[in-house]
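Question thread 4412

I'm putting together a teaching handout and wanted feedback from people who do this every day. The idea is simple: show students a protein as raw sequence, then show them the structure tokens that encode its fold, then repeat with a second protein so they can compare. Below is the first pair exactly as I plan to print it.
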Amino acid sequence: MSNELGSAAAVLQGLGGWVPPRVVTNEELPASWGVDDAWVRRRTGIGTRHWADADTSTGDAAERAARLALASARTPRVDAVIVATSTPDRPMPATAPQLASRLGLEGVAAWDVSAACSGFVYGLAAAAGVICAGIAERVLLVAADVYSTLIAPEDRSAGVVFADGAGAVVLRRGLSGEPGGVLGFDLGSDGTGHHLIEVAGGGALERARPRAYRPADRYFRMDGREVFQHAVTRMTESSRLLLKNVGWTAAHVDRLVAHQANARILSAVGERLDIPADRCVNHVERVGNTGAASIPLALADAAAREDLRAGQRVLITAFGAGLTWGSAALLWPELDRIAPVHDTGTSAGRSL
């Protein structure tokens, strides 16, 4: 995609985010985990997270964020719905078609993207692709994960980090170079690292080889040390490639919004890219790692605090299971004022 004004591009038109009302502080984490506030903050930078109740599914969270993004965009209609998630409501069918129906968007194209914590960037690329190909004028992209459903009761390493939430954007057909325009992408993967972040059970492999699987394989597991190194390296390299492709240097970047994995990863990526901390968006302290939803939630929070302003150059980068990674560059648009998602646990955006 060119960053010269005049070429067709996806343009950010609306933004919304939602986290469950239940706030879980570090002091409220299970006693059996043997952690305290200081320990969690030192290792992750997280102070609170939001966990969904038993009646809230990924589709429910996605609908909340989607309605807010549509309201922010001042439109009730889109031509396609994409849901990026690692916690779909069911293995089949995809979550997106039912979400479209719940929103009254009968007959539109709808599909899921499974790229774990890179899902929002991959979904953004898919949305931009169908817009630039002339298939759709507007696309609703929702990134939603309810990771609390995947955490084993005894797994403190994942339990202190992962949380629930949903973020959504509406993209319209416009011109590259105008506020909100998405200028380019860099995407990549390495399947040899599939075992580093996974939910091993629940799929076709378990059905084909049932004796090789245990009940614990239905839960999330991660090799934290290996993932840390891969995450920092891949997000840094991807960002550098993208900056070169769109003609930016680190000095051009007004805001870096990296996947909110943990504070140490955010800091390391910013330092390697030579982007000062005051230009790096950090939302993980208040909501934890919300998977694919982390970047749009961080965008919503930064916009609510007026830390994102029209015309600013924004670099987005993510890393997730697969292994997958990706980056995107855009010019920030003029949006209606957005309420902080973590204050009420209910909304970011304007109500329909």
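The second pair follows. I'd like the answer to focus on this one:
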Amino acid sequence: MTKFQLVATAAMGLESIVAQEVQDLGYETRVENGKVYFEGDEVAIARCNLWLRVADRVKIVVAEFPAHTFDQLFESTKAIEWEKFLPVDAAFPVSGKSVKSKLFSVPDCQAIVKKAIVERMKFHYKRLGFLDESGATFKIEVSILKDVATLTIDTSGAGLHKRGYRQSQGEAPLKETLAAALVKLSKWTPGRPFVDLFCGSGTIPLEAAMIGQNIAPGYNRDFISEQWNWMRSTIWDEARNEADDLANYDQPLEIIGSDIDHRMVTIAQSNALEAGFADLITFKQMQATDFTTKLTDGVIISNPPYGERIGEKEIIEQVISDLGKVMNQYPTWSVYLLSSMENLEALYGKKATKKRKLFNGFIRTDLYQFWGQRS
């Protein structure tokens, strides 16, 4: 097995959760903005892709070096032993980004990295003409920050938020990775009732069900690195068998999702069917403020509309205000609301136990946490 420097990328504010997930898989971590670094072999690549709920992607860090000039970028890239990663027929598209660096032209940086890898490959594989690039794909990224270039290869392919269950979605869907993060931040356990009063296409309840039954989020999808010749199929088979053994399909769950829009409820039901949770999660059309329950010690996690359209703001403000009054009747329930509304606490009628800054896409939001009383 080869030891790689790996990095799990994460949305801003979620790095600590991703680091904990990586540590739970048995790897030591180092955290930077939006990145969790760790060392691991081919097995680690497979396991992390299958198990990381909150990370965006898993990448191999191939090299890091100063790049003040195009010559420096070319020569340092060419000096890397690309043949250790790329077979002779590898397809290797190069993407790039540059921040606060002398080499600010991203298309030029991409072209230079591509040319340098081609030169290296042609020399190593003794090819005179073009490389045909007809084989497996290795997505390479050149990222230059403050004149330091980092070259990575993406092992995931489609982002890890693509679990494979989402058949359709609403207008402003919550990413599965963020939904999983909300569930993890709530410290919910499968023995407690779980409700999402603004469930949309059902992402939060579906992620809760996967966490509740310890199902690996990547179990039903493919990854780009499965096509690589040095990632043997037995590695993936063993990682999936491990995931299957660790899943607790018999764990009973009390999970409810509701939404005022009957179309969203239908979409959520079809997504739950695709995920294999049709008889585990109850979805129903309902106004959030009609919530009633005889259960105690439950958790509500919701991403209510942010009221950004004209005329919507007043409506959603009233809903939040009414919801606060409703939840006064259920003191043992904990409520977690993800919102960009800065006056949410005033509307809800009480101060949050805790607030956590998170980004929903590019929207800065807060996770308002109203913890219930211990019963």
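Top answer:
Good format. For the second protein you could add a caption like this: The CA atoms of residues 115 and 197 lie 53 Å apart. The two ends are 51 Å apart (CA to CA).
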